[in-house]
Fold:
Amino acid sequence: MIDMHTHLDLYPDALKILDKVNKDNLFTLAVTTSPRAWIATSKVFEKYKNIHVSVGLHPEIVEAKANELDLLIDCIKTTNFVGEVGIDGSNRFSKSLLLQTSIFERVLQECESQNGKIISIHSRGAESTVLNLLSKYSNCGTPILHWFTGKVGELENAIELDCWFSINPAMCNTQKGLSLIAKIPKNRILPESDGPFATVKNNTIYPWEAINIVSTLEKIWQCNYTDVILQLKINLNTILEATDE
Ligand code: MN
Structure:
């Protein structure tokens, strides 16, 4: 029904599933990993009205793509949706941490000067740095922390900073994921697949399967399927009202 963070251009069968994604989902946000990818993907996805493409620069590949920063900044001026951007604090990417941080800061600054964007944000292992920057650029728009895996205190801080959260079926399969989801206010949650990277039982999650989080939300929120769907639709509308989409 809704997929707020998918790498739709990176599924091996991407072109074959576009019709189904467009038909099954009310709204899909296809995040990209570089502005060049955004330009190419936007052209291919253009005719699918329920699929929106956001311009990003993935923190894991900033070293290779840092030369696209000016292009990224130009592209941000022409769209409401930004992502995947953010910071990855894992050891694997420690060499690029300063570069990642400066690029993310530049992105938030631009989003703020463009009156706010919807921003899908990667924060793994760098939650406190990401949150510090979000509090510095508090008019950057609507930050959505995708697949948040930080500490409870960081989650509370993020909620205070008016962050949203996109959560996926893989998170619903871990104790930590479930305990974080239980602490997120109902009106700040949206589904995501993070496919083709996120998997459940070794199966790639497809954009129409992001909605499988509903069974978890039914239990946590103590309400039925219809109520969960209604809440998620309200959330989607709330977030889109902030833009002219
Ligand atoms: Mn992702």
About this structure: The longest strand covers residues 81-86.
